[in-house]
Design the sequence.
């Protein structure tokens, strides 16, 4: 009984102490409003404390503010994604020489898989005569940069390359060079994403017959 009485007495004392502080604060606020009203010439309303937002609304607002930034970062990552070397999708690779190919003479043909991206630009602009003149040096200096599928074909001959020769090879691009006796580029680019085509060797030059409609890469 005495404990309960003590608790009641303590609560009463706390309430009595809090009331004067609250009254003093309210009185100070009222005095400030009267002074400001006189200075401004109109009544100054009481300042009400701001009600804090619930935590769940703060969390939602934070996500809404961060969402555009996250989307922008994701977009930048997708735009900056760099291409990678790919395996040829060729199911067949056929060389066909016309009866009068290369002045009715045997012809060397190289299908070159370029594995070093730094060599792509120079080889893609290199004429066949220059390529064959420096082929041994290229293979000796950069043994891992190129895979060369070398073929010698005679007029009227048709050769189908074994897919095991280019299967599992990853490259940035593929080029074919033909060693014609007459001047010319005698170089073509072969799409890696083509399902198959024929390299036609004519009298004065080579062409790719029926390539895949997909763009070369």
Sequence:
């Amino acid at each position: 009984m005495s404990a309960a009485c003590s608790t009641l007495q303590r609560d009463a004392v706390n309430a009595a102490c809090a009331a004067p502080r609250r009254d003093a604060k309210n009185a100070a606020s009222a005095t400030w409003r009267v002074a400001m009203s006189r200075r401004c010439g109109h009544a100054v309303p009481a300042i009400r404390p701001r009600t804090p937002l619930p935590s769940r609304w703060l969390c939602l607002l934070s996500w809404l503010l961060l969402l555009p930034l996250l989307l922008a970062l994701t977009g930048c990552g997708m735009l900056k994604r760099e291409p990678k070397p790919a395996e040829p999708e060729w199911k067949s690779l056929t060389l066909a020489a016309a009866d009068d190919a290369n002045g009715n003479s045997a012809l060397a043909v190289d299908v070159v898989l370029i594995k070093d991206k730094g060599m792509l630009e120079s080889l893609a602009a290199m004429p066949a005569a220059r390529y064959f003149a420096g082929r041994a040096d290229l293979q000796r200096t950069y043994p891992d940069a190129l895979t060369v599928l070398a073929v010698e074909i005679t007029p009227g001959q048709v050769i189908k390359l074994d897919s095991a020769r280019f299967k599992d090879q990853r490259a940035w691009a593929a080029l074919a060079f033909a060693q014609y006796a007459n001047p010319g580029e005698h170089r073509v680019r072969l799409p890696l994403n083509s399902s198959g085509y024929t390299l036609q060797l004519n009298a004065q030059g080579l062409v790719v017959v029926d390539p895949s409609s997909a763009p070369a890469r």
